[in-house]
Amino acid sequence: MPGPPKSSNGPKLSCVTSWFFALAGLYALLVVPAWLWISIHWPALLTASWHGHEMLFGFALAVVAGFLVTRPSRAMILVLLAGWLTSRAAPFVSLDSLALVCGLAFPIALLAATVPTLLGSAKRWENRIAPLVLVALWLTDMAWWAGWLWLGTEWQQRALLAAIDLFALMLLIFGGRALQAAMGGYLERQGLPRRDPVRSGHERPLALLMLGAVLADAGDQTSLAGLCCLAAALLTLHRVWSWQLGHMFRKPRLWTLGVGYCWLVAGLLLKALAQLQDGIPLTVLLHGLGIGAIGSLTLVMMARTASLRARQSLEPFRDIAAAVILITAAAGSRLLAGFNPAVSQHLLWLSVLCWSAAFLILLRRLLRPASPTHSPRIR
């Protein structure tokens, strides 16, 4: 994802990116254990579809807002924050039409704040991906709310599958740009030859494949969606082969980003496996994308962006390295819980604890006082 402009004053909470990074981190830390507790003790209160919706449109979309909204007015910041809070409260509104308006408040506010500027400044086709994905996310959120209020759970499931495809697309493109630039710069500084062509030739086919997955999932064409995800995973593997990721383990600032990107490949393969093979629970394997990929990549990108904006070095990055290990443990525990009923609740709680601990580490980094004593040239 494209980062916001740098500031020499550190990550102050008056900046919209800091507000939304901190808000997203706090929400991720609290809502997952709250959801597990509710699902055990009051299972009829909130559905699993609500849980998936909040992780995508409550957590992940707040992260996107932190990256894409730049130089906002104070009024815009207040509108975005009010929209986010209103959307979180929408499931508890009893009047259907009001619930729909409340539920879509944050996506609409984010569209108004970002899409005109992003489309106006995009000179290349690839740079129009972000605003187009935001419009598509608004449509999928509208479909989810239509399912919640009138059309039933099948609409909600289709909408969430399409939404996770859209978030995966955004991470494939912008996470890939960040990782390629970081690895390439590191290799050049070490005097090692780069083997990757410094271009975006894979972005268009990846976008088309993931768009195919979005449309297939929205249309309940499960096998076609699985084939699109499989092809996207294989193309991504081909793409990263030349990035020489074997060198990334020397630096936490590199391998944290690399692990998150590799989770994207694994998550797409797991989704494809569940959609192409009968009898494998898709809702379980989707956590490879939801926890492993979205969780780790958003965490790392928030930490990197906050440090660079504060003009701080990315060395050391050990706290975020620990957080990425915890996210990986959370994803692994959640995947295992789906196939081990006897110990599933223990594994679920282990996953929740690892997830929340990771975002507690991120919050500590985001909220600590800035010390802008280092140049951000090393990326």
Concise structural overview:
The protein is mainly α.
Features:
disordered N terminus; Cytochrome C Oxidase, Chain A; single chain; 379 residues; disordered C terminus
Q: Could you tell me how far the N terminus lies from the C terminus, measured between alpha carbons in angstroms? A: 15 Å
Q: What is the radius of gyration computed over CA atoms, rounded to a whole number of angstroms?
A: 20 Å
Q: Report helical residue fraction.
A: over 70%
What structural class results from the helix and strand content?
A: mainly alpha
Mean pLDDT: 86
Structure description:
With 379 residues, the chain is mainly alpha-helical. The protein has a single domain (16-367), classed as Cytochrome C Oxidase, Chain A. The protein is 74% helix and 0% strand. The protein has 14 helices and no strands. It has helices at 16-41, 48-68, 74-89, 96-103, 105-121, 129-151, 153-189, 203-218, 222-241, 252-276, 282-285, 287-309, 318-337, 344-367.
Write the layout of secondary structure elements.
Blueprint (H helix, E strand, L loop, with lengths): L15 H26 L6 H21 L5 H16 L6 H8 L1 H17 L7 H23 L1 H37 L13 H16 L3 H20 L10 H25 L5 H4 L1 H23 L8 H20 L6 H24 L12
Helix pairs in contact: 1-2, 1-14, 2-5, 2-7, 2-12, 3-5, 4-6, 5-6, 6-7, 7-8, 7-10, 7-12, 8-9, 9-10, 10-12, 10-13, 12-13, 12-14, 13-14
